[in-house]
Amino acid sequence: MNQDVCGNVMFHISVRLPEKCCTVSEIVACYFKE
Q1: Exposed, middle or buried: residue 8 (CB in 10 Å: 0-12, 13-18, 19+)?
Q2: pLDDT tens, residue by residue, 1-34
Q3: Which domain of life does this protein belong to (predicted)?
Q4: Which one of 7, 11, 21, 34 is CB 3.0 to 4.6 Å from 26, fit for a cystine?
């Protein structure tokens, strides 16, 4: 999957999260998983 789907904001957050955090659901889940 391309990282482009993450977008700039998502990418900034994804930087601190695993690669498998692109979608909003994934981002939220991974963000709170910390």
Answers
A1: exposed
A2: 444 445 555 555 556 655 565 677 777 776 676 5
A3: Eukaryota
A4: 21
Question: pTM for the complete prediction?
Answer: 0.33
**Joined tokens for residue 7:** 């977008």
Amino acid of residue 30: C
Q: Enumerate residues 6+ apart whose C-beta is below 8 A from 23.
A: 5
**20, 34 Cβ separation under 8 angstroms:** no
DSSP per-residue letters across 1-34? --GGGGHHHHHHHHTTS-TT--SHHHHHHHHHH-
